[in-house]
Structure formats: C-alpha cells, structure tokens
Amino acid sequence: MVKLEVERELSHKEIKELQEEIRRLAEEKNAVILAHYYQRPEVQDIAHFVGDSLELSRKASQTDADIIVFCGVRFMCETAKIVNPTKKVLHPNPESGCPMADMIKAEDVLRLREKYPDAEVVAYVNTTAEVKAVSDVCVTSANAIKVVSKLESKRIIFIPDQALGNWVKKHIPDKEFIIWQGFCPPHFEFTAREVLKLKEIYPDAKVAVHPECHPKVIEIADFVGSTSQIINYATTCDSNRVIVITEVGLLHTLKKKNPNKEYIFPQSMNYCGTVYCCTMKAITLPKVYETLLKETNEVVLPEDIIQRARKPIERMLELS
C-alpha cells in the first residue's frame, strides 16, 4: 500500500509509482477508469479510456467491469450510474460539481413544461440526474445538432446552456427555441477581444472553439465543435498552429495525437489560463488511488430517478 500526503505536490517518481499501483488495483478489482479530456495529464494517463461526455456515456454503458472509477464532474458520474445501475460507480472527488449543471433544477423544467406543453425538453448532458429525469432527450456538444434535428416537435426547450442552445438554434432555423440562460463560466467568460488578440500574435493559426463559448467568440472561429471534434480538427487541419478555445486539459491529448503541431491555449499552458475548470482539476492522482483502494465515494441515486433519467440518455444514444 502506498502512503500518501494527499495535499502536497508529488514528484515525478512518486507519480509513476502511484500510477503503477492504481493500474494494479484496477486489474485486481476488475475496475475500469474513465477520464474526461479536461482531467490532469497524470490522471488521463492512468485511465483505460479518455473521452468527451458522449464517448464516456457510451463507454460506461458498455463496460463489463465491476467498478467504474469516473474521473470527471458529478453529472458525469451520475450518468455512468444511470446507464449502468448494477455497477459500483466511484467518484474520486464528490465535491467536483459543474456550475452549469447547478444553474437549473427539476422544478424549473417542470414550470417550463407547464408553460410550453407542446415543447420537447432537450437537456444538455451537463445536468443533474433529477433534471434529466424530467427531460425528453439528452444531448452533448458533439451530437446536439444531429439529435435536435431528428425531433418531431417544432418547439424546443433547451437547457441549461445558452451558448450551445443558440449554436443549435442557428443550425435548425425551422424550430422555435426556448433557451435557459445557463452557461459554463470558463468557456462563456472568454471574450472575442482575447481571441482577436491571439490571432494578431499568431496570424497563421486556425481557431477551434467549443460551442459553450460566447456567440461572439464562435463567430471568429474557423471550427466549432465538441472536445473530440476539436481534437480531430486540430490534429488534421492544414495549419501547423491552432488556437484552441476550450479547457486546457485538452492539450495533453492534442500533443499525443500530433506533437508536430503547436497548440495555443489562452495565457499559456500552466493551468492559470482563462479556460480552466477548477472542479475538473480537483481530481488528483492520490484521490483516485484512495477512492479505488477503499472503494469510497460511491455514487448512489434513487431507483425512480435512475429509471426516469435513463430514458432521455438512451434516446440520445439511439438518435446519435
């Protein structure tokens, strides 16, 4: 057993030793470790699978492991439990929530349903299990346009992200959208002025932007897409430089995919940049180790919530 001082910074040697021990424990316990692209590099490196929300939802629904250790924010862990209720789902840091997900409650959705009874409720996957349970279908940034375009209803209640909602609305003009005014603070607060400044510094660079960003930032982009879509664009486009406006954790995967390119994130790469998710980065290697070792921080949801929330997630997976 490794003895840890959780709060102190680990040396390179300690990181490697801890990673080996986590891998050993995972094999011993038949556990799968899932990590979002926004996780710390050393956490991504011990994951069996790294992906965006859609990819991780699919992986969670397909695993035959007994334990799922989910390195992501709370709504992601809840989604893993919803699609795989018989598995033990562990969250290395239960305090890692999502500010956007907390901007809407189930009661808010029910009020919208009462006001617009003919509308379908489209819930971004960045929502709590309780909100999913009163929604018609879930979407991710990777599949939102595709899923919404397939819905029969001409009126859409889109929750909770206003940026993604407006991006989808732009691509599906024949539907009426009622859009909740939630947002992702790191993405939405980054400004067009800052992007233009980066373009001045790097005039030959392409700009790839996440659809959670402000519409004025999106207007400047050469490409708009989810984290997985940005990876594909940034590593295959004809430019050797790409300005990437999303969470800086994505840099780790981009460097692995195509180390010959230069990827420019806001304010350099020292995790002090603007597009930085504090709750994602709150999951550390020692927390993953302790959680797997002791099998603590299990995600528990009421059975009725699991049953109701599973329907919009399954519908999303079918439509996408």
UniProtKB/TrEMBL annotation:
It catalyses: iminosuccinate + dihydroxyacetone phosphate = quinolinate + phosphate + 2 H2O + H(+). Pathway: Cofactor biosynthesis; NAD(+) biosynthesis; quinolinate from iminoaspartate: step 1/1. GO terms for biological process: 'de novo' NAD+ biosynthetic process from L-aspartate. Signal peptide: none annotated. Keywords: 4Fe-4S, Coiled coil, Cytoplasm, Iron, Iron-sulfur, Metal-binding, Pyridine nucleotide biosynthesis, Transferase. It is found in: Cytoplasm. GO terms for cellular component: cytosol. Pfam families: NadA. It comes from the Bacteria. Belongs to the quinolinate synthase family. Type 2 subfamily. This is Quinolinate synthase. The gene is nadA.
